[in-house]
Design brief:
The chain has about 250 residues and is an alpha+beta fold. About 20% of the residues lie in helices and about 40% in strands.
């Protein structure tokens, strides 16, 4: 098939544009989602915040489907040619390499906030380095209960890493915790007397109950109502109070 001089020039021009776009390198995106305004400076208002999908992992380059992007722009009533949408849309997320020591330092404050009273963090160690986007932070950590003995004990904690308000990944760290003698004791010891709060409709009454096992704050444990001998399950709210669970 013979091509006209015009079509040959058009193809050559497009090829040149693609080569120049590739040579310019990928367009960097900062958040967890790709927005049109990051790729096309002329996009404003609703167009600037047009969601083009998830950002690639840190340090990874992704090629966007040009036809798909153009269709989304036209769906909002805009002209992609007037906006100057690049023919090649390669995007990348900036990357920061964290050593194992950096990972532990990043997670330390979140782990310390999760410690129960009387428990301190003696040592925290990450097992590997990570490659993450800039601005990553450590999220809320849930720790296992400390043993009923004082001294050091080791455990593994899972720390969520947050980027742009979303969980990017979770990292496992080895933690050594130091349990003080008072922290090794149960908040409510077996045989202790507490006030059982019983709510029935709008009525609220209290009765003395005896704990049938050790329990900590938030635990649901078995109690025996002292006056009647009835067994109930109640959630510990304080050292001297537990709320009876509805059946």
């Amino acid at each position: 098939m013979t091509r006209s001089p015009r079509s040959v020039l058009t193809i050559a021009a497009l090829a040149l544009l693609c080569v120049r776009a590739a040579a310019a390198g990928p367009l960097l995106v900062e958040g967890s989602r790709i927005e049109l305004g990051e790729l096309v400076p002329a996009a404003t208002g609703a167009l600037a915040s047009l969601d083009l999908g998830p950002a690639p992992p840190a340090g990874v380059t992704r090629l966007l489907d040009h036809a798909e992007v153009v269709a989304k722009i036209r769906a909002l009533g805009a002209d992609p040619d007037e906006l100057g949408v690049p023919r090649v849309l390669r995007v990348s997320t900036p990357a920061v390499e964290l050593s194992a020591e950096d990972v532990a330092a990043l997670a330390r404050s979140s782990v310390e906030r999760a410690l129960a009273p009387g428990v301190t963090l003696a040592h925290l160690r990450a097992r590997t380095k990570l490659v993450v986007p800039p601005g990553v932070s450590a999220g809320r950590v849930e720790l296992p209960k400390a043993p009923r003995r004082s001294g050091l004990f080791q455990t593994t904690v899972s720390v969520p890493l947050l980027h742009d308000g979303e969980v990017l990944s979770r990292v496992a760290l080895s933690a050594t915790l130091d349990v003080a003698p008072e922290a090794a004791r149960a908040l409510v010891a077996r045989g202790a007397r507490v006030t059982l709060v019983i709510e029935t409709g709008s009525a609220r009454i209290g009765a003395t109950g005896v704990a049938l096992r050790d329990a900590d704050l938030g635990d649901v444990a078995d109690f025996r109502v002292e006056r009647t001998g009835k067994l109930v399950r109640a959630r510990v709210e304080a050292a001297d109070r537990a709320r009876v669970e509805a059946r």
